[in-house]
Amino acid sequence: MDVNQKIAKQMNLKRFFIFFLLTTIAGLIATAHKKPNIILIIGDDISWDDFSCYGNREVKTPNIDRLALQGIRFDNFFLTASSCSPSRNSIITGRYPHNTGAAELHTEPPLEMVSFPEILKQNGYYTAHSGKFHMGEYAKRGFDISTQGKEIGDGGEEKWLETLQNRLKEKPFFMWFAALDAHRDWGSNSFSGTHDSTQITPPYYLVNGQKTKTDIAKYYDEIARFDSYIGLIVEELEQQNVLDNTLILIMADNGRAFPHSKTRVNDRGIKTPFVAFWPKGIGKNPKTCTSLVSAIDIAPLILELSGAQIPESVQGVSFAKLLKNPEKPFRNYVFAEHNWHDYEAHERMVRTKDFLYILNSRPQFLNTGPADAVGSPSFADLTELNKKDRLSVKQAEVFITPRPTEELYKNAEDPDQFNNLANTENYAEIKAGLKMVLLDWMNETGDNIPETLTKDWYEKVPGYIKTANHGTRGEMPGIKNNAVKINIKGKF
């Protein structure tokens, strides 16, 4: 072989190598683009019925409503805790709060805990977080970039758009966008005054007074701001030509920060709005899903859709089939828990479509709601009328002690769950059955009732007045049984 032939052969090899390399990269990019992009958007302290698409005719949420009208509105989606950090840690790990090792507010799971964004990142996704975090050091591993602190703005959404614009374009992406809206205190912003307090009708278990109406109007203003940023995200996705293959999930972490809602394990605290939008995956025709779904099912759903393996540590079950067929049945049971959140507590709940059962191991304590609800104008209205003995039985429920050890509600007839049937003979068999299901779940998943729980850190009066126990932790539920190592799912 002469010199010219050798040169020609080398050139052909180089061309082949370059062609092979470009083809491989193109193939990887094409494969990556087939995977859905995913954006999980979490509102802070927003109840399930505080979006217009869920029947609220006073709050303004046009962008969320538009996505619901082109996607799926889930009507029976439930959190595992009505408390911020336990709920968020549960969502991101697919585990119950006592199985994360962080069942109480402001506690963190151990560093060896695994989040689903970490698995996505390991499987070729670009992962980003922007907004409220409140989960712990372990969860930071899951994100290529995380924006927190003053940069996120008053409502927590300030960097969402920039995060989406600056993403790595060669990879499918996952975004965890977490607002501070609508957490108290209500700050003045460009949406202040969007809702006229004189046009507000408070729920019947709150006082129909001006303080409460103004309180709710300001709360709705923050929801409107949250909604507006969702509209900006959708517009940006359209401009990037990736909207069609982007799954957008919209939800909240727990109920509104008002008396009777946040920290409750009934529907007012545990039920969340949940809207799924994904033109390529579910079409653009409006659909409604009434199947029971738990927040621990989000992690396996996202991992399945991404093509990643679902680890044994995930206690939830993917509900991908509901995106194709929302009318299909799914869970028979959802479970939730309430542990310390400003005040000592230990409540457990199991819910079916028909009934909700609660076991309260601290019935001697009031459930006024958390400290921010206790300091609210709405609580002030309740307190004022309570002193005058002018509250209805349902309004006065926050001041009643001792509370029932057991509660049983028939959901269809009593959607707000005030008529306790636990001591009714006609429902004794149903109560016994649900209690057994709940106790089995607690036993299988390593839950327990410590003798020394974390006590009240604040007095149950406005002003965050500290008690002598402030800053002292008791025994965390599940720690005694090493529940962080237990992966049993419990009844489904």
Provide tags for this entry:
492 residues, alpha/beta, Alkaline Phosphatase, subunit A, 2 domains, eight-stranded mixed sheet, four-stranded antiparallel sheet
- Tell me the CATH superfamily of the largest domain: Alkaline Phosphatase, subunit A
Helix/strand-derived category reads alpha/beta
- Whole-number radius of gyration? 24 Å
Strand order of the largest sheet: 5-4-6-1-7-8-2-9
Question: What is the helical fraction, as a range of percent?
Answer: 25-40%
- Could you tell me the number of beta strands? 14
Shape: globular
Distance N terminus to C terminus?
A: 72 Å
Mean pLDDT: 94
Examine the coordinates and then state which fold CATH places here, giving the name of the CATH topology of the largest domain. Answer: Alkaline Phosphatase, subunit A
Topology pattern, helix = H, strand = E: HEHEEHHHEHEHEHEHEHEEHHEEEHHEH
Low-confidence region ranges: 16-32
CATH architecture of the largest domain: 3-Layer(aba) Sandwich
The figure for the number of domains is 2
Q: With helices defined by DSSP (H or I, 4 residues minimum), what is the helix count?
A: 15
How big a fraction of the residues is strand?
A: 5-15%
CATH class of the largest domain: Alpha Beta
- Main beta-sheet annotation: 8 strands, mixed
